[in-house]
Specification:
heterotrimer, A alpha/beta (325), B mainly alpha (283), C mainly alpha (321), A: 325 residues, Rossmann fold, eight-stranded mixed β-sheet, four-stranded antiparallel β-sheet, C: 321 residues, mainly alpha, two-stranded antiparallel ribbon, 2 strands
Chain lengths: 325, 283, 321
Amino acid sequence: MSSLLSIKNLGVNFDTPRGSLEAVRGVDIEIPAGTSVGVVGESGSGKTVMCRAAMGLLQGSNVQRTGTVVFDGNELTAMTKEQVRDLFGSGMAMIFQDPMTALNPVRRIGSQISEGLRVRLGMNKKDAMVRSKELLELVRIPNPTAVLKSFPYQLSGGMRQRVMIAIAIACNPKLLFADEPTTALDVTVQAQILQLLRELREDLKMSMVLVTHDLGVVAGNTDYVAVMYAGEVVEYAPTTKLFADMRMPYTEALLESIPKIDHKSGTRLSVIAGRLPNPTDRGVGCGFAPRCKYAQEKCHTQHPELQKDPDGHLYRCWFPIGKAL
Amino acid sequence: MRKFTKPTWLAIGWLSLMMFFAIFGWALPFKSWNFVYEDDLEVGLFTNGHILGTDSNGYDLFASIVAGTRMSIFIAIAAVGLGGLIGSVLGITAAYVRGKVDTVMVTIFNVGLSVPNLVLALALVSVLATNVDINQAVPTWRRVMVLIMSLTIVLIPILGRIARGATLSWTGREFVTAARSMGMRDSKIITKHIVPNVLPALIAVAFLAVGVVIIVEASLSILGVGIPDGASWGGMIARGRNDLEYAPHVLYVPIAFLALSVISTNHLGDVVRSQLDSREAKV
Amino acid sequence: MLKISFWLKRIAQLLIVLLLVTFGVSLLLRLIPVDLATVLLPVGTENERDILRAELGFDKGPIGYYLQWLGNFVQGDFGKIYFSGGTEDVSAHLADAMPRSLLLMAYTQVIAIAIAVPLGVVSAYRAGRRADKIISNTLFTLSSVPNFAIALLLVIFVGVKFAWLPTLGYVPLSDGVWEHLKHMIMPVISLSLGLIATYTRLLRADMIAALREDYVTMAASKGLSDQRILWRHVLRPSSLTLLTSAALSMGGLIGGAIVIESLFATYGVGFEVFAAIAGRQYVALQSTVAVIALFYVFFNLIVDIGSGFVDPRTRDRRVNA
C-alpha cells in the first residue's frame, strides 16, 4: 500500500527570545492511503505543530522547518507557498480544535463553506450555496437553510464543529487532518462527531490523521497510532496491537491514567508525575526517563533510537515492555 | 537605562539643546531678539554674522529662535505640569472614590474632550485675555499667563482621563484590597500604591501633551491670538508669513525647530509607553 | 434596528453632553468682564444698546440667557453678526461655511482611509520586517509635524516656487470641478497626514492581532491565497478601531482645521469660529460652537450604528448590555 502522506525527519524549531525552541524532532510517519492514523500525546508533545508543519501552515518569521514531506507524490517541502496552497481543499484539509475561533466570526456560515467551493472548484455563487446546503446535510445539521444564514456565534459548539467538518470536506479532500476535533466538546457530542467522521471517511474514501491527547478517542477510530512525546515519535503500531501489546512505558502510563468506568469511586486517578522536558534544552538521554518507573541508568545518558520489530511496530526505548533485552 | 536606539538619543539630544536654550539662552552673547539690524534685512543664512539670517523686520533669527525656545518650552512645561497635576488629582480621586463623584468627573471630562483642543484654547484665551476696555492691548506677560491657564484647562480632561483609566486598572487589583483590609488610610494607599503605578502612564502621555501644547500655542500665535508679537516659535511663523515668497528661510527656521521638538517629544513619549507596555506584559 | 431603549439611552447621553457644552460656552461668555452690548454696538446710543440687551437676553441671569439662546437655536435662529453698517445672519454665514468644511473633511477622510488601509495591511502582513519599519517610522515622523507646518511648506514649494497649485481661496464645485479640487489639494494633504498615521497604526495593530487567530490558519487550510485572506477575511473584523477613530476625528476636523482654513483662506466653519472670536462676535461664537458640538455628537452616533454593521457581534452584544 503506497503512502498518501510521507513525513521524513520532520523537525520544527522556533526562535524565541528565550532561545531556540525545538518543538518537533526527527519525526517519520507514513500515512497509507485509505487509513486513519491517530497521533497521541500530551499538551506540548508537538503533535499539533507537527501536523501544521506537515501541511505547511506554520506562520511566522521565527519558524524553521526541516525534513521532507511528500503528499500524493508531491514534495511539499520543496514547493512554494502558493503551490502548496493549491493542494489544499481537494488534496489536504484540516479541522481545528476550537470551532469558535477557527470560524470567521463576522461571516455567515454559508459564505464560509461556499468560499472554498468557489475558489478551489470554480463553482458559481448559486451552485456553491446549493452544494453548501448538501454538505450541511451530510454532516447532519438540522435546518441547514437557517444555518447557512447564521453567524458562528449563534450556533452551539457541536454544530460549529460540524460546520467546520463541512467546510473541510467541501472539496472532497484525500486527507483530513483532525486536530483535537473533540477536545472542546461534551462527551456525548464527542461520540457523535467521531462517528460522523468515521462515516464520512467511508463515504468519501478519505484518509485521516486524528490528533488527540486522549487514547480513548483513537481506540476504535483509527487503524494505526503514533504516540508522540517531547517532539518525537516514541511508538507506532496498528491500533489494536498498540493496546494489546504496547512497548513504551509512556504509552502504558497514558493508558493507565484514563479513568475507567469500573474503577471503584474514590480510587485515585493515576497520573504521570513530572513534566515534559524543557523544549529549549532537551538534554541527553530519553526525554521520558525522569518520569519513567522503569528507568535505568542507560536511559538517562543515552538517547534511544527508534527500533523496529519485524511486524512493523516502532518504539523508542532501551527497555521496552514485554521484550527481554 | 536599558539600551536606547540612535533615534532616541537624537531626540534626547535635541530636547536637551532646547532646554539649554530655554534656561541659558538669555546669557548668550546676543542682542535682544527684537533688536533691529537695519542694514541686514532678510539676509540668508551665515550672512554678516547672522547664523540663521534675519527676517524682514531686521530681527536676527538665531536670537529670535533662542528666545522663542524659552517661551515655547516654558509655556509647554508649565501647562503640562499644572494640567497634569490637577488632572491627575481629579482623575485618581474620581477613579478611587467611584460613585457619583466619578460620574460627575467623567461627564466633565467628556464635555472638555468633545470640543477640539484648538477651539477650546481659542475660546478661553480670547475670553480671558480681554481687557475691560477692549481697545487697550494686553501686555505680553499677561497674555502668557492667560495662555498657560487656558492650555492647562484644555489639558486637564485629557490627562485626567488617562489618570483615571490607569487608576481604575489598579484599584481592582488585590494588593489594594489587601492594603485596605490592613487598615491603611486611603490617602496612604493612593500615594504609596496607586501613584507610582499611574505615574509611568502619565509620563508617557505628558511627553505627547508637551507636543500638543507646543502646536496649539503655535497655532494660536499664527491666528494672532497667542503671542504674535512676542518671541515664540508660533510668533515667528506668524510674522514670517509675509516673507514667504522672498525669504522662506524665515519660516524654515521656526518650522524646523518646532517640528524637531515635537518629533522628539512624541518619540520619547512612545519610548516610555513601550517600556511601560513591556513591563505590564510581564505582570 | 435594535432595542429602542438602548438607542434612547445613548441619544440621551449625547444630548446631555451637547447641552453641557453649549451651556459652558454661554457661561464663558458671561464671564467676559466687558459689557457685551457695547462690544457689539460700539457706535450707537445707549438706548439702542438696551434694546439689544433685551433682545439677546443679556439682562437675564446666566440660565435665563442660556434658555433664551437655546430656544432660538433649536428654531434655527442662530443670532446675528453686528457690524457698524448693519447685521448679518449667523445662519447665512454658517450655511456658506458648512459645505466648505464638510467637503474638506470628506476629502480628507477619504484620502486618509484610502492610503491608510493598504499601508496598514502591508505593515501588518510584513510585521517586524523592513517594509513595516519603514512605513511606521516615516508615518510617525510625518505625523509629528504639525499640519500648519506641512501646509506652509507646501505653500512655499508647491504654491510659490513651482506654482503648480493655487495657494489661497475656495472655489465652489459649481464653478468647475477641477478648479475646486485644485484649491483643495494642499489643505487636504496637510490635514490628512496626521490621520493617515493614526489610522495605519490602528489598523496594523488590529490586523496583527487578528492574523494570529485560528480562523486565519483555517482559511489558509482551505487553500485560499494570502492576499485573499488578508483583504477579504481579516480586514473587516480588524477595521473597527479605525472606523471608530475616523468618525471621532470628524468632530475634531471641523473645528480644529481652523489654522488650515485661515492659511488657505477657505473660510469654513473653523474659520468662522476664529473670526467670531477675533471680531468679538460672541453671539455668533456661541451658535457656531454649538453647531460644531452637534456635529461631534452626530458622528458619535454614526460610530455606534456603524460598528453594528462591521462587527455583527456588537449588535447582539448591545442587546444584552
